[in-house]
Amino acid sequence: QEAGVAWANERWTVSDAGMKLPVTLILKPRAHHDLADLPDDLAAEMGLLMVAIAAAVESLPSVGRCHVGRYGDGGAHLHLFFLGRPARMLQLRGSPLIDWEENLPRVPLPVLQANARVVAERMVVHAGGTPGALGR
Asked: How far apart (Å, rounded) are the C-alpha atoms in residues 115 and 135?
């Protein structure tokens, strides 16, 4: 098992991003691709996975909205971030979420694990694959 992985299949992994939010996950292909050169079959699968992850993140009571972004200027490997904005913290809507995240209190590890487990279970139902160590 890969440490920090919530869910995986033979083509993709979803892992913890280690931020101070109720859930922060990174979707990345196992093969080395960036967004602009992603083969059509992986691009189609990525769209379905993005919808499943966002829906799972937004199903958490502690999350008000799932923000999705691609960061890492200069990186040549695709990493899509799914950031669960804390519920009832409307001041963090939009870009302030990234600006203020480092100032939030750390979410307890058992809460992060429980949130990752919810996402992993929904991913297995919608996309197959298996829960990783973080999603068990």
From this structure: 8
Q: Which amino acid, residue 104?
A: L
Specify the DSSP element, H or E, that contains 130. Answer: strand 130-131
Q: Can you give the pLDDT at residue 62?
A: 94
Which pairing describes strands 63-70 and 24-29: parallel, antiparallel, or unpaired? unpaired
Give Cα separations from 8 to 100, 120, 131 (angstroms): 30, 9, 6
The answer to whether residues 15 and 5 touch, using CB atoms and an 8 Å cutoff, is yes
pTM: 0.90
3-state secondary structure of 72: coil
Beta bridge partners of 16: 25
